[in-house]
Amino acid sequence: MSGESAFIETLRALAHHPAARGLLDDTAVLQVGSETMVLTHDMMVEGRHFLPSQSPADVAWKLVATNLSDLAAKGAEPLGVLLGYMLADGRDEFAEGLSEVLDHYGVPLLGGDTVSGGPPQAIGLTAIGRATHSPVPSRSGASVGDGLWITGQVGAAMLGFEALRDGTEEDSTTYRRPMARLAEGEALAPLVTAMMDVSDGLLLDAWRLAEASQVSLAIDSRAVPIAASEARRLDALRWGDDYELLFTLPAGTEPPVPATHIGTVEPRGFVPLFLDGEPIANHSGLGWEH
Amino acid sequence: MSGESAFIETLRALAHHPAARGLLDDTAVLQVGSETMVLTHDMMVEGRHFLPSQSPADVAWKLVATNLSDLAAKGAEPLGVLLGYMLADGRDEFAEGLSEVLDHYGVPLLGGDTVSGGPPQAIGLTAIGRATHSPVPSRSGASVGDGLWITGQVGAAMLGFEALRDGTEEDSTTYRRPMARLAEGEALAPLVTAMMDVSDGLLLDAWRLAEASQVSLAIDSRAVPIAASEARRLDALRWGDDYELLFTLPAGTEPPVPATHIGTVEPRGFVPLFLDGEPIANHSGLGWEH
């Protein structure tokens, strides 16, 4: 793993160019004339990010929705996507799911590349957006005294995954076809001090927000709306794939969209995260690290 | 192959969105406020587009340079790249080559994604540019009476590939580390009626330009500057990877950069391409189709 880290550090160093405020594995913000562009790229690999047994239409939906979710966290309006598609079985179903998700969000496929190769199949997607508010929200702006908020609820994707895995009748839509909170992100962008989407688990992503902002976050676990039973509350807080927006607002500011107050921003303590007053000593086990 | 074609047709249909003038496997042009963005995405797969034995630094160079060449053909100034990197051996060498090519062109790495998976390794790159001239040059604007021109010479990449393959002392730089004709593309953009880069072979790419413009091109094979011996002239015309710019200019217009007049644009005949007066009946064998 240290080899990987060194490589990622090298790439991060390359990304520290004055023209760019983005970093690898994060969303890039690029000023072009009077416009502020927001750019994100994700790669999904068969067997890692999706299973060969999964519906290619659902894979296409998730690939697009998760990239659009990155734009939502920046309050950006999506302008289009570029696709890198390694040809494989299920290509018609993939194109169908792609068509559905692009229609749903009114986003065009601008171009891309199709290649032979694999297995495993690898698919890349670049989403291009335009910031609707400047400065563009980041993870690093949370201030002591701010409130911590989240849209929607967490745990629905977990239940969807388990329904699929166990072949039950429960609804798996939230896991298979997540929604990007684009309208909410745009409405929140002018108000938030920090914002990100919850892709890898509420606790892990909150940890990252705290680290980026150099503050501590105190979360009231019972305040977090969950889609699961009370017995699964901690699981729901650790599960990812919900793509809700996690954000901080100055005290007294009410969000213009449905959201729940789940904690507060505190001075940087000896750990970045407190759950119900208990310090969280390290981030292993808080969510999905990849 | 018909399955692949149907898929690509489906993706092409998706790309026919009013907001987009680009098509899959081609460069996308996107109007954002007062700015015209040019976007391209390429994926390279180990064993298809590069060999496991190839230097990862050279792979990085080629991935970036070929995407920048797509921008050059649009007269676009590169603003940055996003990388989708599947972790594999040789990552430090890859990062080094990436650093070299980005430094060479003064282009920042804006962001991207690193994933586990493979083999085979798949690597994707998205290049973002800003058009320096509007309308942005395309393949489809060649008019009857225009002259057909090319920058530089063809065949050097072929010789470089053969030197590598045969382990000779010949210089393989042009094959391993192609150059994107960015300055030339920018200078030519206001003047050309059509422009593209020669990536898959002069004859095949000229065929595509003729098809897109609905004209025929008459090429004088002896006029084409080649890096190879006279005996290899036809091979050089069919080989790709040279990344020179192929373009059409109105009769009487001289190019502002070093280039060679190699033919003329004629009314659409029964074939799109005539070589030394001989009709080329189909495009198989003209270059590298993938």
Q: Please, what is the oligomeric state?
A: homodimer
How far apart the termini of chain A lie comes to 11 Å
Q: How would you spell out the order of helices and strands of chain A?
A: HEEHEHEEEHHHEHEHEEEE
The CATH superfamily of the largest domain in chain A appears as PurM-like C-terminal domain
CATH fold naming of the largest domain in chain A:
Phosphoribosyl-aminoimidazole Synthetase, Chain A, domain 2
Tell me the strand percentage band of chain A.
Answer: 25-35%
Please outline the major beta sheet of chain A: 7 strands, mixed
| Total strands of chain A | 12
- Helix % of chain A is 25-40%
**Reading side by side through the largest sheet of chain A, how are the strands ordered?**
7-9-6-10-8-11-12
Cα-atom Rg of chain A, whole angstroms?
19 Å
Ranges of chain A with pLDDT <50 over ≥5 residues? 17-23
Q: Helix tally of chain A? A: 8
- Overall mean pLDDT score of chain A? 90
Largest interface: A-B, 70 and 70 residues
The geometry of chain A reads as globular
Structural class of chain A: alpha+beta
How many domains of chain A? The number is 2
What is the level-2 CATH architecture name of the largest domain in chain A? Answer: Alpha-Beta Complex
